[in-house]
Amino acid sequence: MNKLTLLSLLICTSVSTQVLGESVIVYDESSLQDAFQQASYNPEIDEIVFKKYSHISLSAPAIYRGEQSITLVGKGSTIDGSNAGSFVLDSNLTAATEDATLIFDTAGEVKIKNLKVINSATRGIVINVPADASGDDVSVNLDRVTISHSALYGLHVDDNADAFDDGRSGSALGIELKLTRCTFEYNGTGAIDFDGVRVDERSHGDIYAFISNTTIDNNGGDGIELDEAGDGNVEVYMNRVSLNDNGFYNEEDLDDGFDIDEADDGNIEAILTNLVVNNNKDEGLDFDEAGDGNIEAKFKRVSAFNNNDEAIKLDEEDAGDIEAKLKRVDVDASGDDGIQFTELGEGKIETVLKSVSATNNKKYGIKIEQWLVEDEEEHAEDAGSMTLKRVDITGNGKGDEIKTNNIERN
Ligand SMILES: [Ca+2]
Ligand SMILES: [Ca+2]
Ligand SMILES: [Ca+2]
Ligand SMILES: [Ca+2]
């Protein structure tokens, strides 16, 4: 195809999309509820546009049930969800609800721009992936969105068929989450274990998350938790993200800045740059991989101060390796080890630490342990390796040597 043909094709496509798609304008509760209803039944509506700086209080959740991709253009508007739904607590003080301020029951792409969702009585924004969905992965794309002061989750992307997010059943799809210039703060302040951002992915499919220029602070549960089970990976890229002061709600079981739980087949791949991870009530970064699969971590320019447990913790179990490259990473004043890598089952650790400091931590500054079986008396595998350049370990409670098991220094 020559360039001109390609160009005219592109123009035609973009023109025809504009002609086909219909917009609905919203400015108050009834126009917003109408717009969600209309878009649910009319597949030609693909855009809901707010009048500039609208302030809308909802008295019930707004629910989208269409199959088409939908875009909300917020234009600086605010939705107050303080009366949109409710939740009940069971005897364990676990909260149950189907509600949220904005609910998307769809596998279509959800795009939201320049909108605030505040004071939700339950969850802020929820995307429920239908269990029988097929086709492309679910795509959730938020730009300049603030979700704050939700009683339960701020943002919840839910591919788990179980109401309490137990078990392994979910759709065959994966989840792509893109967050740019967003803020998630003061969520999870109404019940135990509700995060600023929570993704539950089950059955087949990966979690792919791209997060940049985003603030995830002061949430009662984890700042962000990516929870994947069944076949599939967690692949996450973060740049310029703050994860501070999270995890305070449940004093019996405090929470993290950033929690990844990956189970069954699949890897964790995390490329994190320019992160600030301070004052979280459990770990700062807490990544757990289980089943076949590796942890591949590249962290650059990350600082993690005053976290109550480890600042950075990688746990790999069953078959698979840990490959971790840290450059310009500083951890200080953790309530446990500063940096802790633990590898269990078949597999090795390979790590490179360059310009890394681990200071004033309660236990070890850095602990790197490779086992076949934890606490085995003799090494049953070839040793793993660590390469160290400009590593500063001072002021740590258990001394200033790197604590290792079956790791050789290159
Ligand atoms: Ca899935
Ligand atoms: Ca998996
Ligand atoms: Ca593994
Ligand atoms: Ca091993």
UniProtKB/TrEMBL annotation:
Region (Disordered) location: 391-410
Coiled coil: none
Gene3D superfamilies per record: Single-stranded right-handed beta-helix, Pectin lyase-like
Compositionally biased tracts (Basic and acidic residues): 398-410
InterPro entries documented for this protein: PbH1, Pectin_lyas_fold, Pectin_lyase_fold/virulence
Name of the protein described by the UniProt record: Right-handed parallel beta-helix repeat-containing protein
Organism: Candidatus Thiodiazotropha lotti
